[in-house]
Amino acid sequence: MAKARRGRPKKPSRVRNTIMSKARALFGKKGYHNTTVRDIANAYGCEPANIYNFFPSKEEILFEILSQEMEAIIEPIKAFADDNQTDPVDLLKAIFQSHGKVTLGKMRTSRVLFDASLRSLNKKHQREIIEKRDEYDRILRHVIQRGIDSGVFEQTDVKMASFAISSIIARARVWYKPGGSLSVDDIIDTLFLFALKALGCRDEAYLSKTVPPST
Question: Is there a domain that residue 1 lies in?
C-alpha cells in the first residue's frame, strides 16, 4: 500500500515565526515566568522537544521576540540618523508611524512583558536589546535637534524630549484596546500632534497636517 503523501514541510523561518507568535500571546496572557515550553508547544501543536529544535531555551524565544520588535521599529528609520535634508517634522511623523504601528499592531508585546523583558534576559541579550534601543534614541535625538536648529521646534533638552516622546508611544500599549473608538492611525496622529505642541511647534502649516479625531 502506498504511503499517504505528507504535506510540504514548513520552512524553518516560518516555523520559528509561528512559535514566536504563539509564545508572544502566551507571555502576554500568562506572563513570561508562568509560561512553560510545554505551554508553547501545546499552543503550536507539537511536543516540547520540537520547540528545542528551533530555540535552545524559552529565554531565547523572548529575546527573539523583543529583537524582532525593535528591528521592525528601527529598520524603516535607520537612514534618518544621517538625514540632514528632509523636513524634520516629516521625519518625526515617520518615527511615530514606525514605532506606533509596531507597538500597537500585531507584533506588540503586552505591557507586562514589555516592562519585565530586560530583567528576564541574560546579560548578553540584555546588551543587544539595549544597543538597539540606544540606536533608536540616537535617531530620534538627531531629528529633534534638526527641528530645533531649523527653528521649527523651540530650544529644549533634546535627551529629555526624546525620552518623553518614546515613552508616550511605548506606553500607549498600556491602555490601547483593539476595536476601540480610535484606530491605530488615529492614536498615532493624536500623539504626534501632542509631541509637536510639546516641542514648541507653532506653525499652523505643520499643525494642520495632523488633526486629532473627534470621539
Answer: no
The residue with greater pLDDT, 92 or 210, is 92
Full-model pTM: 0.83
Q: Verify that 128 and 93 share a domain, yes or no.
A: yes
Query: Which residue segment(s) compose the domain that 50 sits in?
Result: 10-55
Supply the CATH number for residue 87's domain. 1.10.357.10
Q: Are residues 32 and 90 in the same domain?
A: no
Question: Residues 141, 146, 149, 155: what is their CA dihedral angle, to the nearest 10 degrees?
Answer: -30
pLDDT band at 204 (very low <50, low <70, confident <90, very high): confident
